[in-house]
Amino acid sequence: MSAFLRPAASEEDPETSGRYRPVTSHFAIAPPVSVVIPAMNEAENLPYVFKTLPDWIHEVVLVDGNSTDDTVRVARDLYPQVKVVEQLGKGKGDALITGFAACTGEIIVMVDADGSADGGEIVSYVSALVGGADFAKGSRFANGGGTDDMTLIRKLGNRILTSLVNHKFGARYTDLCYGYNAFWKRCLDEIALDCAGFEVETLMNIRVVKAGLRVQEIPSHEFVRIHGTSNLRAVRDGLRVLKVILNERGTPRASRRRRTLAIAPAAGRGDVS
């Protein structure tokens, strides 16, 4: 049994109560899990987002991007203990970096605020991490994943960019531009994020490979945004992603052969073995 997995503690057991967080009736986890949600004018979507979050998570960090609606008030009404952090810069990358710095958990999960992600999948991400992965990467195109939101043009662009990253950096990703991921907080020291926009997910995916971290893809289903419109612009942000790929130095082939990094097979949703 993993050092981080234990049979769920009985409420009457004073030695284990409070040390482990019950996930199901069969097991509990020790590492505290922080969920980071970058949000700008997402008041209408937050009820759907918070509804799916597991009750065993350690904290929710909401990064407010200078919202002009009731995003912050709604978040506090829904989750009184939410940690609200004001974003001083602009862009999703800047918001995530701000949120990561505010986390106190050992595991960090990134969740979008538009209602497109199912918080119930978090257990699969956490299970992959406590099972030995450093970075649990959501994939809409791994077996068991899917998307209701991507146009054919965006799918084609994502496929081309994914292939480029796989070729240049020796990765084996099935999805590149997806924002539902989880990782051990200690990984931040090795990937040193320094971008402000939507290209942040691509930068993370590249740098975890370059750092030799163990990656496991998690099948994930992306739903359509519930309310409002996305700030994502396919052409503009696609070009920014391409620029990141071209600017990052590829790993020499000799180094690739020496390194033992391999992306583990995607875990089934809810797999906690």
UniProtKB/TrEMBL annotation:
Family listed: Belongs to the glycosyltransferase 2 family.
Residues spanning the signal sequence: none
A Pfam family the protein falls into: Glycos_transf_2
Coiled-coil region: none
Domain Glycosyltransferase 2-like residues, every copy: 34-190
Region (Disordered): 1-20
Protein name according to UniProt: Glycosyltransferase 2-like domain-containing protein
